[in-house]
Structures are given as C-alpha cells and as structure tokens.
Sequence to fold (369 residues):
Amino acid sequence: MQGVIRYPFISCLCLVAQRKGMDIKMKNDEFRIIKQCKTIMTFCVVFYHSCLFWGGEWFKLVQPQQVHKNILIVAEVLGTIHVPMFVMCSGYLFFYMKRSYGRYMGNFRIELLHRAKRLLVPYIAVSLFWCIPFDIYLNRLKCKGIVWNYLLGNSPSQLWFLLMLFVVFCFFLLVGKNLRISIRSVLAVYFFSVIGSLVCIKLRFNCFQVQSAFRYMPIFLWGGVLQIKKNQWTQEFRKIVIVLGFSSLIVFIIYHALGLNGSLVAKVLVHFLFPILSIIEITAIWCIAKMFQQYGFWDNNRIVRTIADNSFPIYLFHQQWIYIFTVLLNGRVHWVIQLLLTFLLSIICSLVMTVILKKNVWGKMAIGG
Fold:
C-alpha cells in the first residue's frame, strides 16, 4: 500500500498494463468463440447441402435412386441454424468493434469499400471462375440466366450469402450511429424486417438479395445483444442451454407444421417465426461453445484449427464439389456412404483449393484476403 502512495506513477502504469492485459484476453476470447461457432457452422452448411440431394428436387443432372424425405428434416433443422449463426457472428463482431474501438462511426464510404473488398470482390471472382461455369455445364444456363442469377443477384448459388450480408451491413452502417441495442430496438428491427421481407415476396423482388437481407436483419442485431449480455449470462449457461433446447424443439415443431400447411396465413407465420427459431437455436449453440471453450479442443486440434482459419473460402467453393461427388458416387455406393463421402471430400477439396489460392496474392484477394 505504501508503494502505491510513494510511487503513484508506477502504480498507474501497473494498473494500465493490467487493464490492457485484460482487454487483450477479452479480445482473444471474443474472437476465439466466434471462430468456434463459424467452424461448427462450416461443417453444418456442407452437410446441409449434401443432404438436399436426397429430397429429389435439388439437383437436376442426376436423381437419387431412392428419395429419403426424412433426411430433409435434418436439412431443415440445419437450414434454420447455419446461415443465421454466420450472420449472428458478423453482427457480434460489428457491434464489438463499434463499442470497443469506435469503428463504423466515421467515413461511410471507406467502411463500405472495406466491406465490398471483403464480400463483393469474392462474389465477382468466384462467380466468374467457379459458379457460372458449373451452372453453364450442369444446368445449361444461358446468358439471360447469368444476368438474372448472378449480375442481378437473384439466385447466385451459395454466393447469395455474400450479397445478403453486404446489404445487411449497409443497413446497420446507416442506422448504427443512432441505434441503441435494447429490447425495443430488437423488436423494431424484427417487425421492420419481417414486413419488408413479405413486401419483397409480394413484389417478387430479390435483386441483390434484398428480400433475404430483410429476413436476417434481426439475427445480425442479435449478435450485438449477445456481445453486450455475454458476461451477465456466464453463471447461467447450463440453465440457459436447457431452456433454449426445449424451446427450440417446441418452436421447430410449430415451424415445421406451418411449413407443411401451405396456406397463406401459414406462410406469413413462418416468416414471423423464422428469426425467433433461429435466434433460440444459435443462442443455445453459442452458450455450448462458450462452455466448452475452457477445454482448449479448438486450439489443440490442428485439423479443426485449419478449417476454422479457412471457413469462409470453404463456404465459397463447397457446393460445386458436392455436385461433382454426387455425380461420381450416385448409385455406386450405399446412400449413407455417399452422403458422408460427399460431405468429407467436399470439405477437403475446398480446403485444398483455398490453400493453393492463398499462395498467390491475386488468389488471396479473390477469396476475400
């Protein structure tokens, strides 16, 4: 205590260093938990697309020898989780950088260019050199289809996610300066987004994935809620996971039943229910990842760490590899073996492509740096 009084300057330096050390640890923990969630979702999105073939409607070039509709329920569950989790992680980082470092409060044009480099450059490069050639060969896509699907962004294969996220980012960049994260703001964005999505569907407008962007806005904002509330929930993770697990099961049963109904009212209710279901599910997964963070599995496993560092480019390339292995394996092995091989080989080949591209400066730029 006397040292503190006699050497106040040294004491202040020690306190600042201690605070800085805590901030660095907090920053590392923040990014580690996000990376864990993204890694889990990378596996989920590849498995999701591997499952879709067995519904008999996803892939036109070849058809499954036997349709397995039950596997589509698994795909439906994953469909309410994997993209929402990626969006939530983006929102989490957006509001973390905004609150901790004052990002996204300055020059709108600079921030927009930075996000375009990260999302639109890969969209253009992967469209031209990967997705469009496959669509031309497999789906006999013509010039009109290329303009509609890719230039206007109505159905650009898996790359729709990049356009959607860019539009969502632009929205929150515009309103972010005056947006305070609260229950009121979450509800306001929720109703605004659902109504906007329904209007776009009525107008049949989804150019540049605007309708999809409306759908995911509340989930992006929820990332900000998690970023603020994370420390308040630390002692209650187990209870939260149990409650959210049961809640997600009940809500999914209602969501699935409404999806089968087909009536106009049911379709509208599905759009209102989707953000709620996704938020419940991804919050549960985020809490589970937070609980397992202490075991260091993600840091010690080289394979998982490699996939974690390359989750974005794996997403960019995986779907066309699924097409290739579906054609090569269909009817030659048992359907379960085909599903698992397609899933694993698509991840491996996408990862190999990523490693090769990252060795070249232009290749690295093409996949978002």
